[in-house]
Amino acid sequence: MGTEHFDATAADWDRDEQKVARAREVARAVAAAVPLTSRTRVLDYGAGTGLVTQALAGRIGPATLADSSHGMRDVIRDKITTGALPDVRLWDLDLEAQPPPDERFDLIVTSLVLHHIKALERVLSRFTQLLAPGGYLCIADLDREDGTFHPHDFDGHHGFDRAELTTQLKDAGLGDVSVRDCTEYVRDGVTYSVFLAVARRPA
């Protein structure tokens, strides 16, 4: 997953009101879908500037923010320093290329990241490995679209078919899979629907 675009846009990322609002919608959907407590250990994978974790603040325990973009990690470091992201640690992690660390989480959340991942089966399997027994995976991403969301030189996924993703999550060893409407993303006057897929590692 190339990081050049994200490195270049990280400093201005939070100035986009739509991105901030979407992160809040994702956090709201996650909080409605899975039980959260002050002891819930969270991995925010492909965290960007940490907007989803910020929106979950006060409802979760310690959070680990992982992103392969150094620009995004720089913004997260600044937020940690200023206290905008309390009880947070930062990882440089790309699960397509790196094996999962020997850690376990109660919740993994990822927002508009999966469609960038080519080795989808590998990453979903590694998410399963990172979950504690009974832990939840929450994926917010695009429904299947016509390729206009990323119009130039994009070699990822043009969104996802919900039934196909459900099968892929089950094949990765997860159960209790459900997919629901989450939010929308408007780009160049076109509205794209965003789902929340929820799955659980068997206890």
From TrEMBL:
The keyword Manganese does not apply. One of its GO terms (molecular function) is methyltransferase activity. The keyword Methyltransferase applies. Keywords: Methyltransferase, Transferase. InterPro entries: SAM-dependent_MTases_sf. It comes from the Bacteria. CDD domains: AdoMet_MTases (cd02440). It comes from Georgenia yuyongxinii. Pfam families: Methyltransf_23. This is Methyltransferase domain-containing protein. GO terms for biological process: methylation.
